[in-house]
Amino acid sequence: MKNERIQQLQQELQQRKIDALLITEPANRRYLSGYTAADHGIQESSGVLLIPKKGKLWLLTDSRFILQAEEETQGFTVELYKKGLIKLLKKLLPALNVRRLAFESHYFLHSTFRRLKKALNHSVDLLPVTDLVEEMRLVKSEAEIRLLKESVLCNEQVFQQMHGLLAPGMTEIEIALSIERLMREKGAERPSFDTIVAFGSNAAKPHAVPSTRGLQKGDLVLIDMGLVLQGYCSDMTRTFVFGEPDNVFLERLRLVRKAQLAATKAIRAGVICRDVDQAARKVITDAGYGDSFGHSLGHGVGLAVHEAPSLSTRNQKKLQAGMIVTIEPGIYLPEWGGIRLENMAVVREDGCELLNEDTTGLDL
Amino acid sequence: MKNERIQQLQQELQQRKIDALLITEPANRRYLSGYTAADHGIQESSGVLLIPKKGKLWLLTDSRFILQAEEETQGFTVELYKKGLIKLLKKLLPALNVRRLAFESHYFLHSTFRRLKKALNHSVDLLPVTDLVEEMRLVKSEAEIRLLKESVLCNEQVFQQMHGLLAPGMTEIEIALSIERLMREKGAERPSFDTIVAFGSNAAKPHAVPSTRGLQKGDLVLIDMGLVLQGYCSDMTRTFVFGEPDNVFLERLRLVRKAQLAATKAIRAGVICRDVDQAARKVITDAGYGDSFGHSLGHGVGLAVHEAPSLSTRNQKKLQAGMIVTIEPGIYLPEWGGIRLENMAVVREDGCELLNEDTTGLDL
Hints:
2 copies of one chain form a homodimer. Helix content of chain A is 35%, strand content 23%. The first copy, chain A, has 10 helices and 19 strands.
């Protein structure tokens, strides 16, 4: 049984006069085949797909992953490369009559390209492509949206459980590790990125690395966390005070929340991405904090935690129904700290639908 | 103050008539600069070094990492790329008179190469190099060996503590997570690879992924774990029975241990790598288990957990004093399980020196 995604991809290959496409990017590999293995970095691939413009589909991997690949895929011939991928391709491509082979240039090492080119010795044209499968992944099906919702809700459960366990003296690292442990206990495959837990002035760094700083009453706490459930990622940020918030915090929190709500309201199919960023940015800039909001408003989420579309000041593309975006304005003030609030939403024809249900500390 | 590593590298660049080298590989970056940031995958670099054949050294990074880069490095000019690395290089390379720029082809995306080439528009020759810094890293200094020893001993402490906590019903995942938590509590930056905990037949897969299988009395337990301490990696495997081992287990354990000791004895400067593999493999093959030992005997360890030299059936290079290798023979029997024993050792002129002190379950 060949799935619709493969059929759509093969049509695209035929139109582009590509004989076969090599899929190396892990999320694309999973999207097309169902094979769940992750790579341990680009230099330790757990396998590649070879998708011809028609006919048999291939999954090429090494002995460590053969069993898993066979269990998880349907309609793929799993082939072992004992002496490496390149030697196998050298044998397989002529047998399949492949003269024009496309590869994912954005997930392909330059050294691999050189070795492959040399091995094939001009018998095959190598065609770099980027974003071919990524474009297919942009708009999510309702089934995918359900999986994303499950991932978001599972992530929220972990957050809420941890929120209830916070106590004076706990370190940022301890909290981050506890969160990641709870994620796995609830069935997550892994965190979708390194969990950020930052107290007080540490929160002034958008990508703070958890430290041994201990939690004190009155500390500002920023937690940015996400997990992978059944392949699909979640990503959420909450910022609150451990104890009683003061007026400065409340004022800044309300500003960031106002920016988030303005952006949320601006989202619907057909709207230009940068206009959504602008809706939030205007609120923050008008309040005099424009220079403290240094990053983009949001990004797409799916099988990858960072994917298109980017809600940035530069992206002039239009939102489409079924896209998933984060809405995460923030302000960062050295010495003082930072506030970021992040939700995920699905773009609909007439607006957007929040995937989050948690409201911890959003509306004070 | 310019360090000796940089001086050695610059001499090499001058000999090869290279004007400057771009360092993208994270362990090489750390080796040369002391900058400890890790990459979140090759598509999210935390910065690159630009090492000219002489003169000022550069660390190019984005706003998230500027502070850390400045704190951790000496003798580097830290430069921000606001609009991406390629735009910065386009400006910087002509200013530095760079006409021949080398790059690390084995850690450089093909798509980045294409964009860089286009941006530079033939004004700069791009020269792929591989393993230039890796070759410098092959032989460790005594200071590095001390750090590796500390990493190994810290890893052993975690193992021994966890070994004492094992109880019926604990799952493979729980044990793996507890190990990784203990690592961080003892000051490790992170595990050096995903911890493997496998009970019974799960241990038949050399790269088993921890599952929800619960520990029972009499289970075979394989634990393969390592951590990163002050940048340097450790890697150790122990296999034991939770409860009383039976004679089949003991016989196979003694075989693997015999192979490990044979290989350990074979190691010294000047010996060919594959001969060390062969010393262990012969013991296992002679006992009739040759087909059950599917992987190589060992690999180098340093700032990366897998680096040269490989102790494989194919590596014809000679060991040099100061290299670090793992010695990890194993046998894997579907249905039954697997046994792997792994130590780390430093190659010396007249033999080898074990970095491990733990002997749990090795000699029964």
